Each structure stands twice: as structure tokens, then as C-alpha cells.
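On to my pick:
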Amino acid sequence: MLSFLLNVVWFVLGGLLMGLGWWLAGIIAAITIVGIPWARACFVIGNYSFSPFGKEAVSRQELTGKLDFGTGPLGLIGNIIWFLIAGWWLAIGHLTSALACFISIIGIPFGIQHIKLALIALAPIGMQVVPVRR
């Protein structure tokens, strides 16, 4: 129940805007055809950006224990290309949103979540969103 309430407040106070930013990056990547692997990551992280509480993004390698297309050398190259083209823009958007959230005490958990998403924005290839393990 708490995750639901936090996600509703999050969505209204910045989650919608940043999630749409991720989706826009995904649409642009998909239009280029060669950007489809990045588009997939954008839509996964975009959905996570709409409601991040109660979920976490982890490396698929950490989750499965083995390398795959997105977590091996090709994933590293993909993340470097992503960082140069779009990753830093989304990271700046999340950091700006985090600073706005840190203005009030109530916004601190939201600011922390934006910082987590800013780090993911730098290298989203090979990430998987899963429920928080307790």
C-alpha cells in the first residue's frame, strides 16, 4: 500500500515527465532501426520511471548469473554509445528533478529515486526491473 501511495505522488511530481522522456528516447531509437536494442531498454526503464517504488533495476547478469547479449562486451559498447548520444541528457533530467525534490523534506525519497534513475540512465543496456527483494 505504501509503494502505491509513493508511486502516485511520484507520478504527479516528476515521474510522468521523466517516463515520457524515456519513451521519447525509445521512439527515436526505434525509428532508426539500428537503435532497437536501445529502444527496448528505454521502454523498460521508462515504465520503471513511471512507478519505481517497490521495484529495482538490476543487471541481468547479476540476476541470472550468466552473460547475455546485453551484459557482455556488446552491452558495454551499447552503453558507451548510449551514454554519448542520449544517456547524459536523461541523467541531467533526473538530476534536475532530484534537486527540485530535495527542496522539501517530503521530497527526499523522490530525490533519491531520481538519483538512482540518473545512474541507470548512464548505462541502461542489460538492466532488468524486478520487484524489491525483502
Q: What stands out?
A: The CA atoms of residues 11 and 50 lie 6 Å apart. The chain has one domain: 11-131. The mean pLDDT is 90. The first helix runs from residue 2 to 31.
